[in-house]
Amino acid sequence: MTTDVTIRPHVVFAYHGCDQDVAEHILRGAEMTPAQNPYDWLGTGYYFWEADPSRAMKWAVEARERHRTDGVKRAPDKVVRSPFVLGAVIKYGHCRF
Question: How crowded is residue 67: how many other Cβ atoms within 10 Å of its Cβ?
């Protein structure tokens, strides 16, 4: 017996906390730069909060405070000055590893 199965890709609404200038640069067509920090416990890649824009904003606000007080030298595009949330629709079927 054969079953005709239609596969539908899983779609996720995801949110990335970052600086407003970075988000606007991406919205104008620039590619996102993957995180490559030694402390990124999930490794190199793009970090999003699934279905939770308020959590992405909380991360961006916390990052702004960290960047002001921790004394770590960062490239200008890695510093959060104006917390912002960038939304995305991600199709899991198109992920690259």
Answer: 16
Q: In the prediction, which pLDDT does 97 show?
A: 54
Across the chain, what does the average pLDDT equal?
Answer: 88
Whole-angstrom distance, CA of residue 28 vs CA of residue 31: 9
Cα atoms in the Cβ-side hemisphere of radius 13 Å centred on 85: 19
Give the separation between CA 75 and CA 83, rounded to whole angstroms. Answer: 16
The whole-angstrom separation of Cα 19 and Cα 17 is: 7
24: its two tokens: 């606007």
Most confident of 40-44, 70-74, 76-80, 83-87: 83-87
Domain ranges of the chain: 11-94
> How many percent of the chain have pLDDT more than 70?
87
Query: What strands lie across the sheet with 49-50, from one edge to the other?
Result: 49-50, 11-19, 83-91
